[in-house]
Design brief:
The chain is an all-alpha fold. It is built from 17 helices and no strands. The chain starts with a helix and ends in a 7-residue tail after the last helix.
Amino acid sequence: MSSHKSIFKTSLITGGSQVMVMMMNMVRAKALAVFLGPSGTGVIGLYSSTTDLINTVAGLGLTSSAVKQIATANSEADKSSIQKTLFVFRWLTRLTTITAAMGMFIFAGYISLHTFGSADNKRGIQWMSLVVFFTGISNGQFALLQGLRRIRDLAIARVLGALAGSIICITLIFFFRKEGIVPFLIAGAATTVLLSWFFAQKEKITSLKVDFTEFKKRSFELLSMGIAFLVSGLSISISAYYSRILISTSFSLHDLGLYTASWTLSAMYVNFILSAMGADFYPRLSGIINDHEKANKIVNEQTEIGIVMAVAGIVGVVSFSALILRAFYSVQFSDAWKLLQWMTAGMAIKVISWPLGFIVVSKGKAKLFVLLEMSWGFIYIALLYFFTRWMGLEGAGIAFLATYLINWLFVWFAARKLTAFGWNSTNKKQISWMVLAILSVFIISRILSTPWQYAFNGIILGFVCWYAYRKLETILGANLFTLLIKKIGINK
């Protein structure tokens, strides 16, 4: 039986929550832009990329590895295995998180010098060690919820976290301006810990203590795949970290703010779509990955749904990039419209390649996964260095798109090798018309003056929205509004 409806229902729950999160982030970003400007946004980007990098190292990929093991045990109704995995996972997470937070506090001066070019932000880095600690603990709680496929609880926790974080952020920034940056980041992370703990406790699954021999065995199982996830996360975090340093040193903090805004906006809509699908897709695929026919079928269905749900947002951002930058930030960010277009086009490639990557992960091919993820980071930094020196700040967007194109080729051949994967005829058509729509609005934006480009792009966007809506109804075999008003359930 087709899993289209299950995928769509799951996406509605998580996606609906992500829409609310996105709206709250929009309000937050607007407040930051008004009160802090591009340079303040750049400072937040440096703090965030630093903590993300340290959290990635500290996590050792254990969260994603635990999701896989919990999902497998859950599909087999093996409660004892879930409890034992939870015990080992929590102890490992506590150890690595505390170590990372202490290390960040001790070496804050060096981190500040390397990140900001001076030791002036040492005290801020020391306080940010609390963000590392809180984030590590909350990730551990969310792993249990995702592994058990508690999609509603995950969604509610994210909405409440975004709401509380936005209120705290706007309040502190309004009263303290740049001095409120570190406090709001800490407060947001602390709120997430409380919410993750509350929803994890609702499951009433206690960890089951194991002896030292089994602790070593399960630790090795978690770490063996976890290291692969670690390298994946490091690739993204290091590339984000060093790309920001490269931009700030090659250009200015103002340009870094433009780059950070474009990076954030290009990923915001697409990541909410992918997060909506991935919350259930990963554990579901892990349970059937050895049946290649079923696995390929669900990957094709996931790709089809992903393209239909994402294409309108992608075309919309490319069509009205300057207006969107003004709406989310301020008129000071409008100059980044070309950069945002290139990055959004890169995210369109991510929508296509993203489901394929889970074949590698679900197969447990750690070395191959590491190779694929490391290649993304290395290629991006290399291309970023080259294109920014050739074409200025806009070159960062071209490097972003080129990196995802190269990465897509690598992931495609990997999926082909592992499960003999191939896109069905429907997805080939889906990909073709998405590329055509994006290319059309991209070219129109470059050759027509402002009033005319918005008029023509608006027509194309309207057609894309209509087509996506009709396609969704065809896929689901039902009226979309009828499905939306029904009580949403998740097929186990």
